[in-house]
Amino acid sequence: FTSGSVALGVKRGFCVAAAVEDGKVKVGDVRKGRVRSFQEIPHTGRSGWVNLLRFWREDRFRQLHKHMERTFSALGPIYRENVGTLSSVNILLPADVAELFQSEGLHPRRMTLQPWATHREIRQHSKGVFLKNGEEWRSDRLQLNKEVMMSGAVQRFLPLLDEVARDFCRMLQVRVEKEGRSLTMDPSPDLFRFALEASCHVIYGERIGLFSSSPSLESQKFIWAVERMLTTTPPLLYLPPRLLLCLSAPLWTQHATAWDHIFSHAEARIQRGYQRLASSQGGGFVAGAAGGQYPGVLGQLMEKGQLSLDLIKANITELMAGGVDTTAVPLQFALFELGRNPEVQEKVRQQVRTSWAQAGGDPQKALQGAPLLKGTIKEVLRLYPVGITVQRYPVKDIVLQNYHIPAGTMVQACLYPMGRSSEVFEDPLRFDPTRWSSGREEGRRAEGSGFRSLAFGFGARQCVGRRIAENEMQLFLMHVSGNSRKNEIRKEGSGKTGTKKAHFPL
Ligand code: HEM
């Protein structure tokens, strides 16, 4: 992760919106050369199958972010790509993303992750918001928003995340004390446990004891299953899953088995949650009646009864699958960046300490008083985005970089190259959480600058777990870095892929 920033080879086109009228680009404008045609967009080769072969041969699936960065450098700020059965238009400038966002419609659509969808279909599981589209998606999504996105929901689940973050720090402190003066460790397994413990507490209202000296093997297996499911997804995206299923291809079998495991883990906990709630309410669910205690997202959805049990299961399983790697990996990068930028770490720590002292023990107030925590997370996700693209299918014709994009084309905002582009960010490789502070000049650097922080996607279809993830990560950093004067994070080792070890001295 030490590459240079993206230098764009082509100048930006002129005013994009002028040629679109009533959702259609005027044919005359295309013919007269005012707007260039779709076919003229620079591309990486016409044959999707030849490209797919190249991807396999050069192992590009694991380096897709680098491939995109290189391609933008070579072809400019927009290019087309066909790989296997998929075709996309790729963009990275905020003004273009803003244009895309304006044409996403009432039911925004992402690229379907076909292997995930095929798994649900062959096992006859319902789909959750991640895989649904249209009105079906919207009606589930509105229910979920109430439980995980709205400010009332955040207030309900924040104390649960705070409890898990504090316990994690206590466990770390005990380890530091046992080790003597300092502790050097690979934080990765602990971060995954932290993320799973936090997810289970918020989603099921249940602590699962992952910080004990003998955490359960079942939970470890769940973590492995999520990792296996995620690593087998990219190569499967470009091949028809049903064909692989017929051939019993090992890649497909591994993928489907990983999903089966994720489903059975969720199923067992949902059953337990159901029984717990039923017994606490004498057999029937009444909204808000679980003894006044917050019963977790699952309990809330069951109490309200607006979604069928089947849909609750589908959505809860997706929340669980989406909730572990997504926060554990950025936290690892946060430790890495804070470790190798001690002056930034000190600034964050100072702000956290002051805020903590003024917050009177209220974690939400403490977070609000320490905006550098939010800046740190934004900065980590800018440099190391979890999902490297956000895709949409515009519902009307649009013009990007002066090229005609017909409605229904898959357009991807490429987050990794955007985060490292010097056209979009000043000194892009510098880790600087203050660049997100309000009033900083840089905020106005690029046109459409509201569309520079896109790690959670945008609009009505943005990440539904966003508030859980942001608060979970910020509380973790608050407790690990600032709450105790003793915790100072140092980076140890020099692994190519980021943090090898974190060092916590007394
Ligand atoms: C750093 C952490 C995370 C990042 C960067 C992230 C990123 C994303 C992105 C980019 C999308 C697509 C949004 C779009 O199309 O505009 C998404 C969707 C989604 N995420 Fe996350 N996510 C994170 C954490 C989580 C967590 C903790 C959960 C569950 C608790 C979760 C559950 C979901 C679900 C269910 C969707 C589909 C939403 C829909 O289509 O309506 N994510 N996420």
UniProtKB/TrEMBL annotation:
| Gene3D superfamilies for the chain | Cytochrome P450
Judging by the UniProt lineage, the source's domain of life is: Eukaryota
Q: Which GO terms describe its molecular function?
A: heme binding; iron ion binding; steroid 11-beta-monooxygenase activity
Q: Does the keyword Metal-binding apply?
A: yes
The entry marks the following residues as binding heme, namely 463
The listed locations are: Mitochondrion membrane
Q: Where do the segments described as Disordered lie?
A: 486-506
Q: Keywords in UniProt for this one?
A: Heme, Iron, Membrane, Metal-binding, Mitochondrion, Monooxygenase, Oxidoreductase, Steroidogenesis, Transit peptide
Name under which the protein is recorded: steroid 11beta-monooxygenase
Q: Which organism is it from?
A: Amphiprion ocellaris
Q: What is the lineage of its organism?
A: Eukaryota, Metazoa, Chordata, Craniata, Vertebrata
